[in-house]
Structures
1.
Amino acid sequence: MKTEQNIAKWTEKGYADEPIPEGTDLRTEIRRMAREKNAVIMAHYYVDGEIQDLADFVGDSLALAQQAARTSADIIVMCGVHFMGETNKILCPEKKVLVPDLNATCSLAESCEAGAFEAFVKAHPNHTVISYVNTTAATKAVTDVVVTSGNARQIVESFPKDEKIIFAPDQNLGGYINSITGRSMLLWNGACHVHEKFSLEKILALKAEHPEAKILVHPECKGPVVRVADKVGSTAALLKFAIQDDAREFIVATESGILHEMQKRCPEKTFIPAPPNDSTCACNECNYMKLITLEKLYNCLKYEWPTVEVDPAVAERAVRPINRMLEISAQLGL
Ligand code: 13P
Ligand code: SF4
């Protein structure tokens, strides 16, 4: 039961930690509750495979935003990180948006505090402000157009060559877009703590062991890693490449959750996770994405908590750059 007391207790933890009756078949119950409550379960490719398998929709950041904009569900359960829930809430203010654990934040979003960013924007007048979707609602509110890794290049190129642009918060993605478009966008110096950890040396050592393998790299990685890639792209773009390319082996330099869908779609191919530089682990995981568990998803649907809330005044400003991204993407067929 949801009471004032347990909400107070859950609030401290950021998720509903009610004991689950022994013998509960979590998968069956989650699907049953989703059906009865007209809830759609969405998952990013970085959450655990068992959650991806239960979801109604799995995608990259762009596809998840596009899906939220068109859903007829009453409740959106976003199995991903907080900024994804915020984007859904901004697009669908009348719906209940749930994220199973509010501690699932994002180092990139946190690297761009809205007040400091607004001061930066004010210090550089006459610039168009382009922000990666991995930002808080408050940062989006001081943005002209949002992008994801799936459309950043095309959206930047939709502006005239001499347009003065601020790009935030990911300096790696921004640097990559500058290098392939010949732009010189002013970059905020944020980064993703997961993607920055890929080690060029370890990737090259893997390549020496698997000379036929193609290297797939997310553009949040540092420049030297991006430069050895056979394919640079969003999670969805890397998946598509893996499906369509003739290679039998791939070294994958992005969060290792994507290997689940790659292996499912291409059972005959081998996917080798690129390791981080600071441990003996074979793969590189986002600790925030991995906070989303089946138990938290079950409780979140059962108690319809925690909800994601966005200050309506912030949402009113943040929805414009998100809609602008969706409109440009639709025009470009993305
Ligand atoms: P994409 O989903 O756009 O590939 O981005 C990856 C990411 O870091 C999500 O947090
Ligand atoms: Fe954020 Fe990096 Fe995790 Fe993506 S992988 S959610 S950018 S911290």
2.
Amino acid sequence: MKILIINAGSSSLKYQLIDMDHESIIAKGLVERIGIEGGKLTHKYGDKTYTVTPDAIKDHTEAMNLVLEALLSKEHGVISSISEIGAVGHRVLHGGEKFTASCIIDQACMDAIEENIPLGPLHNPANLMGIRACQAVMPDTPMVAVFDTAFHQTMPRTSYLYGVPYEYYEKYHIRRYGFHGTSHRFVSARALEVLGLKDKPSKIVICHLGNGSSLSACVDGKCFDTSMGLTPLEGVLMGTRSGDLDPAVVECIANNEHLTPSETLNVLNKKSGLLGLSGVSSDMRDVRSAAAEGNAMAKVTLDIWAYRIRKYIGAYAAAMGGLDAIIFTAGIGENDGEGRADVLKGLEFLGVKLDAEKNAKVRGVEAEISAPDSKVKVWVIPTNEELAIARDTLMLTSK
Ligand code: AMP
């Protein structure tokens, strides 16, 4: 079966067509600047790229029509009829407490995604636009919603409640939800396989380190705690997000810079992290090259980045009462050997022993990077959120 994966943002729409017989990508692409001047579709198939720059792409339905035209095109297409697409899997940001797993999209599911808009005010409306656009152009194709928050719904109350008046949880659903759940689920399942710990007791920390970063503590394959919170702002230092800070910092910045609370949150979400501290870039490669060229602030930023992740690993080992493995994934986690080594520095007391030579060589591939006698195993396991969404979509639509 061929499955189309859709990840809709407010002005963009990413897609991948996956052949589930071989779990291979047939085509993928991106529609940018939907509803803004200068809309563009970039369609990749095999080793070829094809771009379309129409006058305007009015809305997500027009964007979906462009995607289907590209997939069906005589010159650049990869299928000959829409009916070849057996199902569509949609990435949805916030499932709140309603969704502990992926689900078939019906009216009740759409209503629940809508109900969760207050928790995901930027993403859930965009995700709904993507779903509605697909329904408009492919009304007979079954669709599945896969939630970024679902994997973390197994967290106990001790992990997810904040120390604020309990009525705010009851009235406004303020709690830790966690994100990147599809990645954490995919990587933790694979980790149990490679570690031979499936159906055995296990305590694992997954470090999803990309532009957005989050850690999860997984006990027996289930999420026990995670570093992102009500929103993706909490946790470790990220590309442009500050991660953890004293909430009083918000008022202090707002007063001094004459900003509203939401303008201040914008600074914490978009102008902080690696970018804000280093003043160089939100991209780890740029910060690392600046540090190598002697930029002192870039060097300090790298130290803070690693220190904060290390603190979380230590905290999660204590919270779980042990640690069998640490797994690195996502852009930085999979590719940046120096970063991984920095994070693990000082964790020898927990039983972590890195194979430095192997670690330096591993890039974007699955590999064990701990020494054979390391008590805590350390692995790089590449994430594949699209494949995880496609597998859920196949499973739910083949029932
Ligand atoms: P992601 O959000 O998972 O796509 O990850 C993006 C981040 O991965 C960016 O900060 C990139 O700089 C970083 N990244 C990708 N390749 C490398 C590399 N070879 N070394 C260091 N960082 C990398």
